[in-house]
Amino acid sequence: MKEEWFPLVNEEGQTIGKATRRECHNGCKWLHPVVHLHIFNKAGDLYLQKRSMTKDIQPGKWDTAVGGHVDYGETIEEALRREVREELGITDFNPVFLMRYVFESKVEKELVNTYRTIYEGPFSLDPEEIEEGRFWSAEEIKAHLGKGVFTPNFESEYEKLGKQNLQME
């Protein structure tokens, strides 16, 4: 299997080095960039993916529609479009930038670049990445927060942005 290389960045997103996926996920807390895309339908429901049980971090948990690492030498927008195509089979969407922030867990430290879009489907899920996916209402999400259903990263981001700020205007 090909070794994945990620850029190491400062908090402004400037590349200062590179490291392998394994190095970035071994608890050393090297800051590396990722992309997230929140997908809403026209009714305002939020599409979430259930992570595959084979994932090395948070397997089987519900998470942001698309989340993935930026490869070394790739721009944030290139990574976003690649991840959306790979995970959900979507090639035509209009991303709107929401925010950038640092997320830290026990095993890694990420510079998260968060976007939103409106998309109704169809979706073509990558079974290696995603077990299932569906739209959730705000009430449904709120009822499951803090109960181990979602990834800590999703819960943190959802609360940080608030549903009102995530929705398209």
TrEMBL record:
Pfam family, one: NUDIX
Domain Nudix hydrolase: 30-164
Matching PROSITE patterns: NUDIX (PS51462), NUDIX_BOX (PS00893)
InterPro entries: NUDIX_hydrolase-like_dom_sf (IPR015797), NUDIX_hydrolase_CS (IPR020084), NUDIX_hydrolase_dom (IPR000086)
Highest rank taxon of the organism: Bacteria
GTP-binding keyword on record: no
Sorted UniProt keywords: Hydrolase
The name this protein goes by in its record: NUDIX domain-containing protein
Organism: Parabacteroides faecalis
